[in-house]
Amino acid sequence: MEIFGADIDGIQGLLISFDGVLEEGSGVLLLCKVTKVVNEGFVRARKAIETLEDDWVLENCKVTIQLDPPATTKVSEGLDLPIAVTLLKASLFQNTDKLDERIKKLEEKTIKTSNKKQKTDARKAILEQIERLISQRKKIVKYKSKIANNRTKYVLIGSLNINTGI
User: Which residues contact 105 (CB under 8 A, 6 or more apart)?
Assistant: First the structure.
């Protein structure tokens, strides 16, 4: 599955290719020259994904998105939608072994806090996080082969609203 967007400035347009990787850590790196509105598009994309019905786990992840051609400055808020789809695609290709490690570490953390009555709220939050990660893992397994076998090329243009989602 290839994702393209169109960077539109007035009546001029430029076809942009998108690729993304989700890694352990935090933060975002856009590999290209962007204006502030495109950089903010990543925030809008992430917030829109958080409003989806299926809990997509993107916190505690470092995201690297490459927009080609890299030397051309990207200016359009119409790149929000392809950024969001690239984030979702990258989340489906994250390493499930690392996800399993995160789940195991959280499970160990619940064992340590289970004997302390005052830690029940913290334990509940950890269990909810484990549940979300397990759900994410199931989605990854379900969709990974479908996405990998999809040879379709998509051109997406659209800005996103952080309150209503995609």
Answer: none
CB-CB contact of 57 with 22 (8 Å):
no
**Residue 82 preceded by cis peptide, ω within 30:** no
Question: What does 39-82 look like in DSSP terms, one character per residue?
Answer: HHHHHHHHHHHHTSSS----TTEEEEEEEESTTSPB--GGGHHH
Q: CA nearest 18: which of 159, 160, 155, 150? A: 155
* CA 46/CA 25 separation, integer angstroms: 16
What is the H or E stretch that residue 101 is in?
A: helix 96-113
Q: What is the three-class DSSP state of 27?
A: strand
Largest CA distance in the chain: 64
Q: Chunked in runs of 10, what are the mean pLDDT values of the chain (166 residues)?
A: 88 91 80 89 84 68 88 90 89 78 83 62 81 83 82 89 63
Regarding pTM above 0.90, the answer is: no
In angstroms, rounded to a whole number, what is the distance separating the alpha carbons of residues 94 and 164? Answer: 26
